[in-house]
Amino acid sequence: MIGRGFVVDPTDGTPEIAQKAQERLGQPVRIMRFEEMDAIEAYDAVWAHASLVHVPRAGLPGVLKQVFRALRPGGFHFANFKAGGTEGRDRFGRYFNYLTISELFEVYRAVEAMKADRALGWR
């Protein structure tokens, strides 16, 4: 993205990975988990490559709400997940939420419902 001229605000929730990314990118990488994102209409896009898969299922709707709140009108969001219908930790202790496609769509639909309900403090 940087090589294509995009201005990026790189973050990672793991200090060691943020440090490696900073070394590779040659620019600061903030240590921040998605749950800590408090930006409002600050980004044209939020790219969540292989990261939201680590958010516990119960917290995923709230995190996605924060992602969409951080987007400017017309902004884009990308995320990729692993399928499987289970959740748990791998042999290294990392948590994964292996959602089925229908579960993933259900989560995104729930966030759309939150957006429609201004009483929940969407903005």
Structural commentary:
The chain has one domain: Vaccinia Virus protein VP39 (Rossmann fold, 3-Layer(aba) Sandwich). The model has no long low-confidence stretch (mean pLDDT 91). With 123 residues, it is an alpha/beta fold. Strand 3 (43-48), helix 2 and strand 4 form a beta-alpha-beta unit. 31% of the residues lie in helices and 22% in strands. The chain has helices at 15-25, 60-70, 101-116, and strands at residues 11-12, 30-31, 43-48, 71-79, 86-89, 95-98. It starts with 10 loop residues before the first strand and ends in a 7-residue tail after the last helix.
Strand count, sense and closure of the main sheet?
2 strands, parallel
Would you tell me the structural class of the helices and strands?
Answer: alpha/beta
Shape: globular
| Overall number of structural domains | 1
Count the DSSP helices: 3
Uncertain segments? none
CATH topology: Rossmann fold
How would you summarize what this structure contains?
The protein has 123 residues and is an alpha/beta fold. Helix content is 31%, strand content 22%.
Topology of this structure?
Elements: E1 11-12, H1 15-25, E2 30-31, E3 43-48, H2 60-70, E4 71-79, E5 86-89, E6 95-98, H3 101-116
Parallel strand pairs: 1-2, 3-4
Antiparallel strand pairs: 5-6
Helix pairs in contact: 2-3
